[in-house]
Amino acid sequence: MLDIQSIFSISNKAQFEQLALDIYDFQSSNCKVYQDYLSLLNFPKPSCIEEIPFLPISFFRTHRVLSNGLEVTKIFKSSGTTNAERSQHFISDITTYENSFERSWRYFIGNPEEQVILALLPNYLQQEDSSLVYMVDWLIKKTNNPLSTFILNETNVIHQNYKKAIQNGKKCVILGVSYALLDLAEQNLDFSKALIIETGGMKGRRREMIKEELHEILSKGLHVSKIASEYGMTELLSQAYSNENGIFHTPPWMNVLIRDIYDPFMYEQQGKLGAINVIDLSNIHSCSFIATDDLGRSYGSHFTISGRMDKSIQRGCNLLV
Predict the structure, then answer these.
(1) How many other CB atoms are there within 10 angstroms of residue 300's CB atom?
(2) Phi and psi at residue 265, in whole multiples of 5°?
(3) pLDDT by residue (tens digit) across 262-319?
(4) What is the pTM of this model?
């Protein structure tokens, strides 16, 4: 069995690639869903990460993606209108997830002990088993501050807690889904000293818009110079963060490749639009190689998100697979 701690000790690209290949060897033999998928492809054993086949993310909606012989201690589910539409991530060791999100938060956002965290995640709170709610709840407790809390739509509470946090010398982090932050921005209150982190998701409450338009509206309405973003999902145990301009960076144990929209086994050049493949080594007990339905562009060590693949593109990719 691979050493979990080696995942969080990666310090260079060579270490990442070698560990990714080691995890591929493990999961190709021990994760039945991934093993069956690979047997259908009948590809040769990869010698580099670009040769690793990525499991379509839709398998998390239809299959139990978990290594053989492991007990399930937690199940995270995606947001959705019915259970049939919800992805499920079967967790064997919750401490791996805690290790991953805490390290990333400290690296990209700062130490929670020095922060007040206000979370606007109404749709996630209404549905159980959200990995995002688990993460934020854990971080809120880590702040050890009574001002840190989940908030539904109490605008006055958000602003009062923000002002008290600043008065107490704390960094205030307001994290929320896009539509909840837009609702807050319409109140035209001053949050100029807060760090605003949007996690995406209109959830049918508002019209979809590109990141640039969303961030412009939020910046103006909340009186901040920049908007940060979090990129994560139920099927992953790691998150990428953008501190401004929609440019995302990954922790050392996570990487993004951009595949051709119509040929899932070819990759795009830097700066060219394609679909996002994620390597998340903290997914050691499920599958670390996920072909998502998101569109984006890669620029070396960072990437941007351009939206979601439409149904026609998804069908085309499925037929190719």
Answers:
(1) 7
(2) -110, 15
(3) 998 999 999 999 999 999 999 999 999 999 999 999 998 899 998 888 653 443 333 3
(4) 0.91
Query: Which tokens belong to 273?
Result: 């639009």
How many separate helices (H) and strands (E) can be counted in the chain? 11, 14
Tokens in use for 318?
């499925």
Together in a domain, 109 and 160? yes
Amino acid at position 125, single letter = L
203 burial level (CB within 10 Å; 0-12, 13-18, 19+): middle
Q: Where are the alpha helices (DSSP H) in the chain?
A: 4-7, 13-30, 32-41, 59-62, 94-108, 122-126, 131-143, 155-167, 178-185, 211-222, 311-320
Do 217 and 314 sit in the same domain of this protein?
Answer: no
- Whether residue 17 lies inside any domain: the answer is no
Residues near 119 by beta carbon (within 8 Å), at least 6 away in sequence: 136, 140, 149, 150, 151, 175, 176
CB 67 within 8 A of CB 27: yes
116 and 81, same domain (yes or no): no
What is the distance between the alpha carbons of residues 239 and 48, in angstroms, rounded to a whole number? 23
Helix (H, G, I), strand (E, B) or coil at 76: strand
Strand bridging mode 115-120 / 149-150: parallel
